[in-house]
Amino acid sequence: DTSLAEVNSFSSSMPISPSSMINQYKFEDEPELRDLFITVDDPESHITAIETFITYRVVTKTSRGEFDSSEYEVRRRYQDFLWLKSKLEEAHPTLIIPPLPEKFIMKGMVERFSDEFIETRRKALHKFLNRIADHPTLTFNEDFKIFLTAQAWELSSHKKQGPGLLSRMGQTVRAVASSVRGGVKNRPEMFTEMNDYMETFSQKINVLDKIAHRIYKEEREYFNEMKEYGPIHTLWSASEEDIADSLKGVASCIDKCCKATEKRMAGLLENLLPILHEYVLYTEILMGVLKRRDQIQGELDSKVDALANKKTEKDLFSEEIGKLEDKVECANNALKADWDRWKQNMQCDMRSTFTNVADSNLHYYEECLATWESFLASQTVDLHVEEDSEDRP
Fold this sequence. Notes:
Blueprint (H helix, E strand, L loop, with lengths): L4 H4 L9 H11 L7 E12 L4 E11 L8 E7 H14 L23 H20 L7 H8 L2 H8 L5 H16 L8 H49 L6 H66 L4 H78 L2
Antiparallel strand pairs: 1-2, 2-3
Helix pairs in contact: 8-9, 9-10
GO molecular function: phosphatidylinositol binding
Keywords: Coiled coil, Protein transport, Transport
InterPro entries: AH/BAR_dom_sf, BAR_SNX7, PX_dom, PX_dom_sf, PX_SNX7
């Protein structure tokens, strides 16, 4: 079932309140079931004559036997995370590698190297490493282990041992050749359905991402105007003795609503926008994974066609076809398992995100409504007092 309707379907057994969902996740992530814990924190600025960059502390605690120690602490910069991602894609071309935050994430909304930008990136890098740690295959990747444990000079040395220029050129040539061949003739229906699903999902999630950013921008503009709106009533009260208390009351209500709006904006910036944009990036990753699977399939198809047209070297071609068939089967099985896992995680993330946003909005409007209702009640009491005093002889 690859219908996009699955994204919006709620299981009757799934708890819908934010608190119960959090409890469920805690139950599923019991510490004793995990053997690798990673934390990204303590960002540091580095200024050199050539560049300015940020490094983050990566602390790893583990009970795995393949690690020489139970705890490691290293510092990594963004370029190191990019290297790790490229190595994972190279080693596991048909697995879904988690996305990294873009180099200028939230561009136009926060300034680069501001505290807000750095904290947003830190959270994204923390999530990136923990998604890899929780993956049943990626977590045992050797480059991932080196990233977590090697000191800066060791990591730099290891990076230089990557594939050479000719190897990278060969990969590029094969990719271009595969794309030139056109569509895959024998693609299984399951992967056609995956591709159709991702095209629809990509359209929807991109629209949601754009709307969410526009909502945040409008909310910020409203907040900035409201900050100026309240003090005006306070200044006005100084020249209107008869309604001074009412004007001060309005100013107080606006100030409280302003603080509630600021809190809701922080929630959008922390909980909604990063999740939506993460899945925008996931759509690009998944489309790339599907293309790489098709390239393997296309290579097999071309060998089968070549065998049908050749009268000699059949034994050699048969051996190559056998290896390619195994490669295609491994790619298919890896992608199918990763697809199911990704889809389940995506649905949980979306359900949790939208439920939390709805809960936040509900609290926001209840808080603002209570503020204004309290003000109106006080004004009604004052009016009754004035009317009683006027009726007395």
